[in-house]
Specification:
Blueprint (H helix, E strand, L loop, with lengths): L1 H23 L5 H38 L7
Length: 74
C-alpha cells in the first residue's frame, strides 16, 4: 500500500513539474496559450454535446420502436 501511494505521489509531482516546464517553454505567450486552450475546450465541449444529442435521438427512436404495439400475423 505504501509503495503504491509513493508511486502515485511521485507520478503526480512529476506530472506537475512536467506541465509547469511545458508551459514555461511553450512557444506561445501565456495569453495566446490560454486563448488556444479555451478555444479547444469550447470546440471539444460542443462536439461532445452534439454527439450526446445525436445518441439521445437515436436511443429515443429505438425506445419508441420498442414501445410501439407489435403487429402479429394471424
Amino acid at each position: 500500500m505504501n509503495r503504491a501511494f509513493n508511486f502515485l505521489l511521485g507520478a503526480a509531482i512529476g506530472g506537475f513539474i512536467g506541465a509547469t516546464v511545458a508551459i514555461l517553454l511553450a512557444p506561445s505567450s501565456g495569453d495566446d496559450l490560454r486563448s488556444e486552450i479555451g478555444m479547444r475546450t469550447d470546440r471539444i465541449r460542443s462536439e461532445v454535446a452534439k454527439a450526446a444529442a445525436d445518441r439521445r435521438a437515436e436511443l429515443e427512436s429505438q425506445l419508441a420502436a420498442l414501445r410501439a404495439p407489435k403487429q402479429y400475423d394471424q
